[in-house]
Amino acid sequence: MNAKPIRTALGLVAGLAAASAMADEPRTLTVYTYDSFVAEWGPGPGIKKAFEARCGDCRLEFVALSGGVDLLQRLRLEGEDSAADLLLGLDMNLMADARDLDLLAPHQADLSRLALPIDWDDPVFLPYDWGRFAFVYDSEALPNPPKSFAELLAAPDDLKVIIQDPRTSITGLGLLLWMKRVYGDEAPAAWEKLNDHVLTVTGGWSQAYFSLFMNGEAPMVLSYSTSPAYHMAVENTERYQAAEFAEGHYLQVETAAMLKSSEHPALARDFLDFVLSPDFQRHIPLGNVMYPAIDLGEERPAVFDRLIEPESFTFSPEEVQAHRREWIREWLNASAR
Amino acid sequence: MASEAITAGKAPPHDRRRLTHLPLWAGLAALTALVGLGLGSLGALLVQAPGVSPSGLWREPYLAGVLRFSLWQASLSTLASLGLAVPVALALARRPSFVGRRLLLRAMELSLVIPSLIALFGLVAVHGRQGWAAPLWEALTGTPAGYLYGLSGIVLAHVFYNLPLAARLLLQELERAPAAHWRLAAQLGLSRRAIWGTLEWPAVKRLLPRLAALIFTLCFTSFAIVMTLGGGPASTTLEVALYQALKFDNDLALAALLALAQLTICLGLWALALSRGGAPSLVAGDGTMPIKGRWQRRDALGVSQITDSLWLVALALLLLPPLVAVVVAGLGGVTDLAAQASLWPALLRSLVMAAGAGGLALVLGLALLAGRGWLAARGRRLAAGLMEGSGQLILVLPALVLGTGLFLLLRPRLGGGWQGYGLVVLVNAFMALPFVMQVLRGALLGLPLAQRRLADQLDIQGLARFRWLLWPRLRRPVALALAYAMTLSLGDFSVIALFGSPSAPTLPMLLYQQLGSYRWQTAAATALVLLATVAALFMLLAWLTRQLPHYPLSNSHRPGAFWSHADDRQEP
User: Which of A37, A302, B79, B138 has the fewest CB atoms within 10 Å, measured from its CB?
Assistant: First the structure.
């Protein structure tokens, strides 16, 4: 009764082992990234194809983890023995911690191609896309969204928003930093006001957006300013839009980096150079629903011209590293009542 | 390991002395694997941690609040689940046949294994502010429906998960009462209260401690539900604090401490529960005559007709609408399915892994129970309890700690490929073990003494003993246990996410990928496929073992009746 499934499983395991052994023959670059990047409809498959066509005899293998935080943790656990040649998906807020591990090598890519809203000269982390955190609203339920944080905080209590937890989610941490940047020492007081509008704080973005927001539970959800691009381009609906806040929006920059321990450093640098080429970047706007890191010109989908273009800002990675725990505690004290 | 014991039975009889120790060795081997990997991974965390000081738990006032809230919500959820499960189970036992009973029992089995993301979607669609029930709530109370967020929502979701589990186990226990008792109750025309005092309460009482421990543990360690419905950081469980410590802060020492705190609380509770009360089993192992239609219960008439209907309708209203919501949402995306190249490979991958995890959980569960039986038969009660309790270890050890610890143990490196899948199968098998053991233990340990002695006298040993004595009473529990283990593994996302995959997702990973890329419709359809697969697995495994095995010797007597194992009341 039990033997059969086990045998089947062993067969599968053996098959996979053989497959991975065979894969080692050509030069293989292993890239750790997050799961939506490698999805069938995500940017991963197109990028793999383009890079393999460019390098000729090499292979690009993605290993999908669940998010940027998991990439960093995997890197920590594996250290110099890591199977990865490259990491794709560490955002700015994880950069300082990743740098401190002393496992990453300079990218040596030409940064003049970059088209970011901020200056970038980091020698190790190479931006491949970026976006702004924003509250996405349902224009049918909320025809007149708040035009600033101040308006949101002063709105009647029945205006509800769904946010994410900064302890478990990238977007949640983004909001924490956004509020801190806007309100500084007044952040706790601002949080207390915002909390009157918070319907719930979910662990991750998927629960907030899918289980709650798309079910109509609240008219606003914390997400990215690029989210409406997907709805407009793929679902052909103008219903979901991002609210533009007068105080400005916090930036997220996602980066690629190579490991010192890579067995194919030259090939890994080739890949990093390829990251800033149109062949890579054209998969970003609708595949990853983020802004490309270079100027794609005509190739950028037209819906991106209809997104909000607010002021944007960040803390430096070192500031985030130094204060993150303290700011999270501040948020907890203001919210855990 | 258990199958070793069985096949080894082919050895000549003079080996029997040695053979009789096999259950013990099998149990010990399973115990070593479980406790070794469980505590080993915790140990690996502790070793890696720079300096562990237990005072870290007290230094942080926030953690004390987290602990308080975890205990509070778990206690409330347990009380509510059990308090409601008792009348529901009584009503189900009193009404052995009504239209839709089978469907209701099926839905009760399903609710335990639905992935929390899907359950949450269904609950929000029904109970949310814009849910199906919202207009009713507003008409009744005059206030907008906000009850899904905050403590009430957490308890509601936990009741949705655990009431069916508790009621299902209670029902089995009630139905295990010997037929003679029911006959007597009918002949004496016992009133409702008298039946409660003589038959129902003793059965319920036997079960409550373990049931309470099981549900408390499940609620105490709940993560996604508490986070999504909790409303804010005031509703934080230890698991969330642990996630933060391990992932964001890389504070291995704090993570290990939190895991230890959780372990201590839950294991303490289990020790208390195991030391009192009998054991629930999901399948009646002891044969009883079918109650259905045999004995007229006086308490089945009168007022109870109304109250029972109310309880059963309430159960259906709790269980079915969220499932229907998932199906409705999924149907909307079915047209996208054809275009999804990765769906069927993902389903196949998930099924193969689930089969591996299910088989492994079954083998481990049988081995532990066999070892426990061997010890108990020799009066080693404490050792027997320890062996059985070890099966619950994984329930209280956070998957994140287990995963990270295993990772540290298996360094220098864990290839992204098949070792990852192998580990997931292993951890999934461990996670299914508590459920598998609940299902199997009644059948395996409930072998009546008289039958065992008869078999001993007739020297029925080894394969024959298994074939004629054990297998007929094990086949159905084995099928149900396998169904639970496989479906739990099928819906698991927490473990697979830890190890990563080389762009070959399992079904739940695919679901998350779709959500991560805004593909709601497709994701809903994938959730429907997952739900349908789970239901199909339950039905298939029940169907495969529904027929009694063919016994060539029996003409007038069905062997089932002779061994009194046949439990025909059980729906297929």
Answer: A302
